[in-house]
Specification:
Length: about 375
Amino acid sequence: MKFLLFTFVGVVHLFSLNSGKAIYKNDNSQRTFQEIKEEVARYGDVAKAIINLAVYGKAQNRSYERLALLVDTVGPRPSGSKSLEKAIQIMYQNLQEDGLENVHLEPVKIPHWERGEESAVMLEPRIHKMAILGLGSSIGTPPEGITAEVLVVTSFKELQRRAREARGKIVVYNQPYVNYSKTVQYRVRGAVEAAKVGALASLIRSVASFSVYSPHTGIQEYQDGVPKIPTACITVEDAEMMSRMASRGNRIVIQLKMGAKNYPDADSFNTVAEIIGSKYPEQVVLVSGHLDSWDVGQGAMDDGGGAFISWEALSLIKDLGLRPKRTLRLVLWTAEEQGGIGGFQYYQSHKEPVYLMISINISPSITPMETP
């Protein structure tokens, strides 16, 4: 969800998972910038060899071909699905065949949600079939659906101000796009805030800076003590249209049908491989991406690209016969889309200090300067 394909950025932390503080060994915190610069410069030939192998050598396009094979073979990999577990087993075998060390699977319990059939039709002031995508973990509607008048708001503050109007209605959020981290709160919390004021369902303008009539799915969260209501994303275009209609005083009525269901948690795995460090094996440089995806796409970018870039980083080093001072650990997370479940359970199981963490998460829906 962060950067353009094959941009090696994502989220980079130099910290201890225990304390959140930077790790410094052998009093490295006292080294001058010049000393650090000189040490980095000594790796110039190694860096050039890695670049040459990746760009011009036998590894040219390898990561792309590996990724294409997986997504073409397996397709979408939603949390709790058989296709996700098939992808995990394929990657487990791939990493072993690649000659990486300590290849293993770490068990994780993950959510299992399926969207089922879904539709939304505007009945008033005119008939209009709307494109929607139910949000992860949403409940479904009754079989006959929910038919109700719409209340359009642009913020949580406006919803609170108009709370009396919301009861018994479908709340439509037409929040402006500011940036991902701020705007995504409407997707995550929209159903809860609407339910608090008595709404029957909520529809959220897709969290995107650009739209070609394309709704975006994602996870949403319920809150204990608050009624659960169905929730889905609609397109930017439909949200803007209903906002215009409401401003003219038009009465808007929508029939919403969603067959979404939540099932018991499923068994899954984080997939792990390493190159053991030669001097400081206990210090871990963790490189990661996630294997799961949503069900409406094959997850080639979010986050197949990030996962396979991470694998390629270790492959390049292994192919050149290099042995890093610190352990390089690849982790391919499961159930990231459902709220980082695999990453959280990894933290609960390990909690050892990590020297450096590079997490690569890619999405076309966010511009390169937006890295939540």
